Structure formats: C-alpha cells, structure tokens
Amino acid sequence: MKKTIIYALGAAVMLSSLGLAQAQDSKPAAPAAPAGERPVRARGQAGAPGGIEQRVKSMNEQLTLNQEQQDKLKKLFTDQAAKTRDLRQDTSLTPEQRREKTTKLRTENQKMLKDSKILTDEQFTKWEKFQEEQRARGQQNRPAGAGGNRGNRSGGGAGAPPTPSK
User: Fold this and answer.
1) Residue 147: CA atoms inside 13 Å, Cβ hemisphere, count?
2) What residue segments make up the domains of the chain, in order of their start?
3) For the whole model, what pTM was predicted?
4) Is there a contact between 8 and 106 (Cβ–Cβ < 8 Å)?
C-alpha cells in the first residue's frame, strides 16, 4: 500500500514538475478564467497536447527510449489525460470523491506504466529513482508549511489534523 502511494505521488510530482518547467518560459501569462469556470490549460502543461509530448521527451532524455516506446507512451499518456479530464468534468462528484478517484487513477496509471512493459525493467527502475529525486527536490524547494495538508480545506492550515478517510 505504501509503495502504491509513493508511485502515485511520483506521478503527481512528475506532472507538476513539467508544468513548473513550462511556467518558467518567458511567455506572458494567459488571462484568468471567468469566475466559476476552470481555466483552459495552456500548451505544454500535462494533459494538453504539448504536455504529453513534453513528458515523453523528458522520459526519453532520462531513459533513452526507442521510437516504439515513445509512441506507446504517447498513447498511454493520451488515454490517461482523457480519463483525468473526464473525472474533472464529472460534476456529480463531491470534492472528496473526486480526490479519492484522482488518487486511484494516479495509482492505476503508475501500475499501467509498469505492467505494460513499455519500459524495460532497468528503465523503469531508473525512472522510479528519477521520480524520487524529483520529489526530494520538490520538498527542499517548498516553503515551510506549504502544502502539508492538501486534503484539509477547512482552513485549519498545515498544523490541523487531517480530514478522516472513509
């Protein structure tokens, strides 16, 4: 169970690190979405067409993928992005249900990447190590008290007890 959570967090870190890398571009920021609407993702962010290509490019730089592996990863990431988008757009879910389903989806995505055998065992091990380094780097760069208790939106802050799980 602990490994599954670590894999899910690794996938989340990877997705967010790609978004942060793109955010450092010198392009002007997109205008804010009207109140009540979700902002449209810019090219280059995970889930957007350029974001998938950027993820594959990043993995290729780390793992030296062949063309077949790159093509399979693009398809896998495109499918994952569609599932994530559908989940976000499902207005019948409460925020807690959406968080639970998102966590489950991340876990499934990580398992699918491993089980699909797109990557060799050596590449997958190297990828896991890279993700752990990214997580550690993210923790070092996080300001004190930032993000410690994301699930608790009651305003209790980072020191508040976590919201009980069902």
Assistant:
1) 7
2) 68-133
3) 0.56
4) yes
